[in-house]
Amino acid sequence: MAKDHLSGKLAVILHADVAGSTQLVQQDEQLAHERIQKAFRRFSDTIERYHGRVQELRGDALLAEFERASDAVAAALSFQSDHTDHLIDFNDDIRPEIRVGIAMGEVVIADNTVTGSGVVLAQRVEQLADPGGVCITAALHEALPKRMPFDLENMGEQVLKGFDDPVRVYRVELSANQSVPGPQIISKTETSTSKPRLLVATIVIALVVAGGAAYWFKTQEPKVEAASIESMAYPLPDKPSIAVLPFTNLSDDKQQEYFADGMTENLITDISKISGLFVIARNSSFSYKGQQVKIRQVAEDLGVRYVMEGSVQRAGDQVRVNAQLIDATTGGHLWAERYDGSLEDVFSIQDKITRKIVTALSLTLVEQEKGGLVQVETNSPEAYDVFLRGWERYRQGTPGDITKSVAYFEQAIKLDADYARAHSALAAAYWTIALNGWSKSIDLPLIQAREKSRLTLKKAMEKPSALTFQIASERAAYFQRKPDKALAEAERAIDLDANDPAGHLAMATALLKAKKPDEAEKSVLTAMRLDPHSPASYFTKLGQIQYVMGQYEKAAEALETAVKLNPDDDWAFVYLAATYGQLGQKGEAKQAVDKVNTLRAKSGWGALTIQTAGEHRGGAGRRYYFKWFGDYIPLRDGLREASVKPEINWSSLISSGTSGFEIKGAKTIDIKTAKTLLERGTPFVDVTFKWIQGHIPGSRYLDMFYYEFNEVRLAEVVRKDQEVVIYTSVSNNRRGAEAVARAVTWGFKKVYYFRDGLDGWKAAGYPVETGRK
Q1: Alpha helices, DSSP H only, in 91-180?
Q2: For the chain, which terminal residue's Cβ has fewer other Cβ atoms within 10 angstroms, N or C?
Q3: The pLDDT of residue 7 is above 70
Q4: Are residues 207 and 333 in the same domain?
Q5: Which of 647, 678, 697 is the last residue of a domain?
Q6: CB of 57 within 8 A of CB of 1?
Q7: What is the distance between the alpha carbons of residues 167 and 121, in angstroms, rounded to a whole number?
Q8: pTM summary value
Q9: Is 658 part of any domain?
Q10: How many angstroms separate the CA atoms of 577 and 581, rounded?
Q11: How many domains, in total, are found in the chain?
């Protein structure tokens, strides 16, 4: 194609594709490619005879341009007739059947590339055709002379991806006992005036539209409706802004949805790392999944100028990706492209798409971005596929799904021990389990889940990603109580991916621990701008910050949104109850407290008291957790105003004698008695985090530090009228005394305090278990 060919015009576009090409190639790659190429060479000859021009011919697809609708349809039917005869001669199943779609629309031809809405429309229509069939749009139907021997079957209005209005499509076949009309002979005079004739035809169609048939105009020229900058929910950022819609899964296997989603998310991650681009987060982009949404609406909802959409088709190891970039403010297509390859090529395809975006938006890359924009994650297609299955589970966020994701990530690592992203994802899964107290979902004590989180994070830090640093920051804030480290790790996460809202949320947590709530609020708002369809956790975090700042009305608004989005988050209701208490809204506060207790009863946590409000089910106890939250005192005061009662004063039961701690209502026992009780089957409960390093055989671990030791959990171990022994790893430990005192206040009647603990047990030479059986 000549570089000076006419650009920006209305044309008849024919798009042809091989149906089931991947299956053909899998049978015999060389023979399949040979037959496909021969078929398209014959099709190209036919197109030229009918005065068409082949603009692109690669792989298993062909794109051609015509000036007359009749020539395009006749060429397609002529080829299909001849091609059917060719297929009959093959004695095997490698028979490349061709689908053809023909449309009329705008095209732009420049730099040896054909793009525009007309090309996209022809591709969409071609996908509706049967193998060996031809489909056309209503505009072509109107433009065909009535004398042509064609039968047209009305397929009705079809909703096509990327087009705001439904498009009427027709199936075209040669009439019975008729021959395909041959190419018309065009004189030089006629050739020189063909373009004016096309213009006249276009004007005629426009006049028909003006006369009342507006539908045909929309079908003929399917332009995207331009977004209104004034109607955008957010001001456009100072730099180019983009949202990537979830790519459609066109695979025959609908279970390949995870693969299409994974490629979309990878692409979002890749372009997010480009410093000169503002990228909407995956959560907000995927909120449109499965919807026939207008590009204009997406742009206005999210406050972006550009929108990308596409499709993924996979059969076995073969992959086809279609992508197009749209300027929502003009409705124009900047480019549309198709990429074919194997699973081994997916990272190369992602890199090509990313570079297309950089070129189309005239972005300037910083020095470190000029190399490969997309890094090859793994050289194992099997590991990549398994990882995507696990990532789909991880994204669901439920205890059951997180548990299943662990198995997938571990399998991916077995397939490729150097798969850095899989290591980061595994660390993220264990961190989520440890933070939320979901250790039961993986049949692990909480302390062991914590240890898994630590070890997997340590491995992931060998080749860290933004996700790795996010986890490290949150771990430093929640578990290690190191604000400086939390800030440093969050900053590293943002440096690697400034468009990832999770990094900014980690920074907000670190800033709260560093007692900088004003800056923490800015970080949360940055995350919410990157993810306009923000999940409940964003609003909970914002409400926490505003509560600390004394902005109770704002806090109430944020927390009300949080519980509306996630009515199962008991901690959001805790903060909301305190907020209502500070505002003097007694009735609303009581309702929030009742909701907390209902949720905690279901999940196995004790009822809310002023003391237990300061203990986080996956974070540190009240003395530590609320150092970063801001201050335990205003939360306590808010809950008191909400009529939340203090816990029974168990500390008054503890006294310190010459031999150590004594607890009123409990019996202190020595080593000999402890051994006797163990031998007769009395339950033992260890309340220290060192349980995994060693414990009395058969003992149950309920950690005080993580609020796993509570009335509900203890009642799962033993009835209140049964004997129970409580101890710690260290002799005469205050934590063990506190646990015993709490058990007494909860109504347990036969509580024994083994004051000598594990140290005394070992000193007596009795056996010790380590880890978990």
Answers
A1: 117-126, 138-143
A2: C
A3: no
A4: no
A5: 647
A6: no
A7: 9
A8: 0.65
A9: yes
A10: 6
A11: 4
Q: Is residue 486 part of a domain?
A: no
Domain coverage including residue 636: 535-647
Band the pLDDT of 179: cuts 50, 70, 90. confident
DSSP-based helix, strand, coil % in the chain, nearest 5:
50, 15, 30
- Which parts of 60-148 fold into alpha helices (H)? 69-88, 117-126, 138-143
The predicted structure's pLDDT at residue 646 = 67
- CA distance readout (Å), 627 to 505, 510, 582, 646, 744: 18, 11, 20, 20, 29
What span, in angstroms and rounded, lies between the C-alpha atoms of 358 and 372?
Answer: 13
624 has pLDDT over 60: no
Closest CA relative to residue 16, chosen from 153, 135, 150, 114: 135
Calculate what percentage of the chain has a pLDDT beyond 90: 38
| DSSP 8-state assignment for residue 478 | I
Q: Mean pLDDT over residues 257-272, rounded?
A: 88
Sign of CA dihedral 730, 733, 735, 740: positive
Q: What is the CATH number of the domain that holds 540?
A: 1.25.40.10
Please name the residues in contact with 262: beta carbons below 8 A apart, sequence gap of 6 or more. Answer: 388, 391, 392
Same domain for 692 and 754?
yes
Q: What's the pLDDT at 80?
A: 92
Structure token pair of residue 34: 């040979």
CATH number of the domain enclosing 692:
3.40.250.10
On whether both 602 and 680 belong to a single domain, the answer is no
Structure confidence at residue 109 (pLDDT): 65
pLDDT tier, 438 (very low <50, low <70, confident <90, very high otherwise): confident
750-754 and 723-727 beta bridge pairing:
parallel
Clarify whether residues 639 and 654 are in a common domain: no
Do 239 and 310 sit in the same domain of this protein? yes
DSSP 361: T
pLDDT digits (tens, 9 = 90+) for 185-234: 554 444 444 444 444 344 333 333 333 333 333 333 345 788 999 999 99
Q: Which of 193, 220, 247 is the last residue of a domain?
A: 220
635 & 657 share domain: no
Mean pLDDT score across all residues of the chain: 82
**In this structure, are 605 and 700 located in the same domain?**
no
Q: For residue 512, is it within any domain?
A: no
Note whether 51 and 140 are same-domain residues.
yes
Residue 381 · residue 343 · CB < 8 Å: yes
Of 260, 262, 230, give the one whose Cα is nearest residue 248: 260
